[in-house]
Design brief:
Number of strands: 7
Strand order of the largest sheet: 1-2-3-4-5-7-6
Distance between the termini: 27 Å
Largest sheet: 7 strands, mixed
CATH architecture: 3-Layer(aba) Sandwich
CATH class: Alpha Beta
CATH topology: Aminopeptidase
Helix content: 10-25%
């Protein structure tokens, strides 16, 4: 059984490094906005093991007109739990939380390999693909809440 809980940014570092940023030292796996007002971090646990993470920030993107926007960053699942529903559970929890807080839009820079996952959860692509150096091809994706 999986449980979604709010966690601290530093709790995300190990999975961020393992899954997303192998080229970084673990102490460099923070994001400059981890502690900004309105930021929150979620984790999916099985027993006491952290399996999946996602960080959410109040941030507007110029391509969207909605006033109340959040950005998803650094979502990752430990490899042995890929395709077991943990990421969907985390994102559905976050979407409900943001909807309850009257947010209008959630957006993210989605890795090319994750586009299908986001589309299954109702996200749409905006614009053309772009490359983030070292990391790869991404798409701007969004979901109206």
């Amino acid at each position: 059984m999986y449980i979604v809980k709010q966690i601290q940014a530093k709790d995300c570092y190990a999975i961020r490094q393992q899954v997303l940023w192998q080229h970084k030292a673990i102490n460099n796996c923070g994001i400059d906005v981890d502690a900004q007002e309105g930021a929150f971090h979620l984790g999916v646990f099985q027993n006491d093991e952290l399996l999946c993470i996602g960080s959410f920030f109040k941030q507007k993107h110029a391509q969207f007109s909605e006033q109340d926007q959040y950005r998803l960053r650094a979502m990752a699942t430990v490899p042995k739990f890929h395709k077991r529903g943990t990421a969907s559970l985390l994102l559905e929890f976050a979407i409900q939380k943001l909807h309850n807080e009257y947010q209008e839009l959630l957006w993210c820079d989605a890795r090319e390999v994750a586009v299908g996952f986001y589309e299954k959860l109702g996200f749409s692509k905006q614009g053309n693909p772009y490359e983030i150096p070292i990391i790869g091809i991404h798409y701007l994706m969004y979901k109206k809440l």
